């Protein structure tokens, strides 16, 4: 094992995940870009390496405990695991009548149980303490009527999971925090359509959507030594849309 500081980002090929990989690599981490889509992971890793940064692509499906355990165990080949970011997730919109058993199971399995799988594997492998950052959503903090009940429940669950793990792991010097983004410009939100995005933007005091890079900067702060006395917190990144 080398003396590299290793960070793992699940969902690293997506909008916020991609930006997070970039921010962490710029902060000096060797970043394992982990994504179910191995092509996306390779593209992000290649982009970072072209900038002279350190990154490795890794395929992972967070719905599989075996795959997640294998991913985290593999970090020892690259260096010392210091930070894990749980960005893997899917969005689901609609009313309760649209929320089938299948949709509920899929969203909860990826967004909430997938986060648990990653956190559980990471907690067993941190050699000398470290940081776990989960990603929730403003939908898990407010009475969202646009997002599906499955999505809202999954993200509210991530917040509860974060607080529970922070309390349980503090004596092992493992910090666990959560970032709850508002409406962020990503390929995922691009599927909402211009009309819906305009309606959502009207509700944001800052008057615009956030960028993935703005969310990533907060994640990078929580992942690094500058936040060494911060744990169990939910940081809202939403342009003032939720103040509470």
Observed structural traits:
244 residues; alpha/beta; two-stranded parallel sheet; 19% strand; globular
Describe it:
- 43% of the residues lie in helices and 19% in strands.
- It is α/β, with parallel strands linked by helices and 244 residues long.
- It has one domain: Rossmann fold.
- The strands form 2 sheets. It has a 7-stranded parallel beta sheet, sandwiched between helices. A two-stranded parallel sheet has the order 7-8.
- α5 links the parallel β5 and β6.
Secondary structure layout:
Elements: E1 5-10, H1 15-26, E2 30-35, H2 38-50, E3 55-59, H3 65-74, E4 80-86, H4 101-123, E5 130-135, H5 149-169, E6 174-181, E7 184-185, H6 187-190, H7 194-202, E8 210-211, H8 212-223, E9 234-237
Parallel strand pairs: 1-2, 1-4, 2-3, 4-5, 5-6, 6-9, 7-8
Please state how the strands of the largest beta sheet are arranged side by side.
3-2-1-4-5-6-9
- CATH homologous superfamily caption: NAD(P)-binding Rossmann-like Domain
Structural class, by secondary structure, is alpha/beta
Q: What's the pLDDT, averaged over the residues?
A: 94
User: Which stretches of 5+ consecutive residues score pLDDT under 50?
Assistant: none
Order of helices and strands: EHEHEHEHEHEEHHEHE
Secondary-structure arrangement, i.e. CATH architecture = 3-Layer(aba) Sandwich
Main pleated sheet: 7 strands, parallel
Cα-based radius of gyration, to the nearest Å: 17 Å
Provide the helix percentage: 40-55%
Distance between the termini: 44 Å
CATH fold descriptor: Rossmann fold
Number of strands: 9
Total count of helical runs of at least 4 residues: 8
| Approximate shape | globular
In the CATH scheme, the class would be Alpha Beta
The share of residues in extended strands comes to: 15-25%
Number of domains: 1
């Amino acid at each position: 094992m080398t003396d590299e500081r290793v960070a793992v980002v699940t969902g690293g090929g997506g909008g916020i995940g991609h930006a997070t990989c970039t921010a962490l690599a710029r902060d000096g981490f060797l970043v394992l870009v982990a994504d179910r889509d191995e092509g996306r992971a390779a593209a992000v890793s290649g982009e970072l390496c072209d900038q002279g940064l350190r990154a490795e692509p890794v395929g992972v499906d967070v719905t599989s405990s075996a795959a997640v355990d294998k991913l985290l165990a593999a970090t020892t080949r690259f260096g010392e695991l210091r930070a894990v970011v749980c960005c893997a997730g899917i969005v689901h919109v609609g009313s309760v009548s649209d929320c089938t058993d299948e949709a509920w199971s899929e969203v909860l399995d990826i967004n909430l149980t997938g986060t648990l799988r990653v956190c559980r594997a990471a907690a067993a492998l941190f050699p000398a303490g470290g940081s776990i950052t989960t990603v929730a959503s403003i939908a898990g903090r407010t009475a969202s009527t646009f997002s599906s009940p499955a999505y809202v429940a999954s993200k509210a669950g991530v917040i509860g999971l974060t607080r529970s793990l922070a309390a349980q792991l503090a004596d092992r010097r493992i910090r666990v925090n959560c970032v709850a983004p508002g409406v962020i410009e990503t390929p995922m939100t691009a599927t909402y359509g211009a009309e819906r995005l305009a309606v959502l933007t009207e509700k944001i005091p800052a008057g615009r959507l956030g960028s993935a890079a703005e969310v990533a900067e907060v994640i990078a702060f929580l992942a690094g030594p500058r936040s060494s006395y911060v744990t169990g917190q939910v940081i809202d990144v939403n342009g003032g849309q939720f103040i509470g």
